[in-house]
Design brief:
9 helices; single chain; mainly alpha; elongated; two-stranded antiparallel ribbon
């Protein structure tokens, strides 16, 4: 037998996405590109762990909104909003299994740009063209509207201005750029969020578990 992908090397690794064994080379080369790997694949988990241990900082030219600065305390003081945005993304993924890091980041970036212009007093909205990130864009927008209208239990939290939301979205965009590996079908950033916000109520009580980039 030979690997069903390359048809050259012997298959030694079971691929849950393919339902059969493939060779180690194709596993590494096609992972999250041609192969839509499930998050519980042991080879994917090991690869993500290795990537996290050897991750380099985002290059300056790729750092989102590199001219924008805000202290960690600003984000942590508004952590319920960060928790809500993250869980809105994760809930969207439940119904849209095909959501990838790229689509999620496209939605966050487009929404950040919308709130950047709102902070200057100009209304300019340009949601993503692709259907999936556009739908996520709408879902996050809906959450933010409901969050701002419902102040129950948040008397001690500062009011959330348009410029504040922009900075929080920039924060999540930077985290996403740092955590994703850039492959077309990567969900490393989404798994990063799930590990920290898998239980929304408890996550809100526990407080921040992400360091501001």
């Amino acid at each position: 037998m030979s690997c069903p992908i390359c048809e050259k090397r012997p298959p030694k690794r079971f691929c849950p996405a393919k339902g059969e064994k493939i060779c180690a080379v194709c596993c590494g080369r096609e992972r999250e590109i041609a192969i839509d790997c499930p998050s519980d694949c042991p080879h994917l988990i090991a690869a993500h762990r290795y990537e996290a241990e050897h991750r380099k900082p985002i290059p300056a030219e790729e750092f989102p909104y590199r001219d924008i600065q805000f202290p960690a305390d600003f984000v942590y003081a508004r952590w319920p909003a960060v928790t809500g945005i993250a869980t809105a993304i994760l809930r969207f993924q439940i119904d849209n299994k095909e959501l990838s890091d790229g689509s999620a980041l496209a939605a966050i970036e487009a929404l950040a740009e919308t709130y950047r212009t709102l902070g200057t007093g100009i209304y300019y909205e340009r949601p993503p063209d692709a259907p999936l990130p556009r739908a996520l864009y709408r879902q996050i927008t809906q959450f933010l509207q409901e969050f701002r209208n419902d102040t129950t239990g948040r008397a001690s939290s500062p009011p959330l201005k348009d410029s504040d939301i922009f900075h929080l979205l920039v924060f999540l965009l930077r985290v996403g750029k740092q955590e994703t590996n850039g492959r077309p079908r990567s969900r490393a950033f989404l798994e990063f969020l799930r590990a920290r916000f898998s239980l929304p109520a408890e996550a809100a009580k526990e407080g921040p578990r992400i360091i501001v980039p």
